[in-house]
Specification:
Elements: H1 5-16, E1 36-40, E2 46-50, E3 59-63, E4 74-76, E5 99-103, H2 106-116
Antiparallel strand pairs: 1-2, 2-3, 3-5, 4-5
Helix pairs in contact: 1-2
Length: about 120
């Protein structure tokens, strides 16, 4: 079975709480961002879930650098720029600074969150 955004999102909300980057203004003010859902760990580190429509069938995250990850089921992939990461609440992940990771299963996501916390 494929590990999808809809599988990962409840895990992230349960472990990290609500997203920190709601739409700031306009018709969608206060609603979830449609491209990136940002979270903050208890240690203050940022993590963002890629929710672009084309990525809904796989889980990709941005985490703060300069960490390298050696967790089974977590693979660094080519960096992806996203203008929504340039917002103040996610600035540490902006302009290609972040590591972009693909997560293959729930256990890998749990291990990543344990390690990143």
């Amino acid at each position: 079975m494929t590990f999808r955004v809809l599988d990962a999102l409840p895990v992230l909300v349960s472990r990290l709480g609500e997203t920190i980057n709601k739409v700031p203004s306009g018709n969608r003010s206060g609603l979830e961002n449609m491209k990136v859902m940002g979270f903050k760990t208890s240690a203050g580190k940022l993590l963002a879930l890629d929710v672009y429509p084309g990525n809904m069938k796989r889980v990709k995250l941005w985490i703060e650098p300069p960490l390298s990850v050696a967790i089974p089921g977590v693979v660094a992939v080519a960096p992806k720029l996203c203008a929504d990461l340039n917002r103040k609440d996610l600035a540490a992940l902006s302009a290609g600074k972040a590591l972009y990771l693909e997560i293959s299963n729930r256990a890998a996501l749990d291990d990543l969150l344990d390690w990143y916390a």
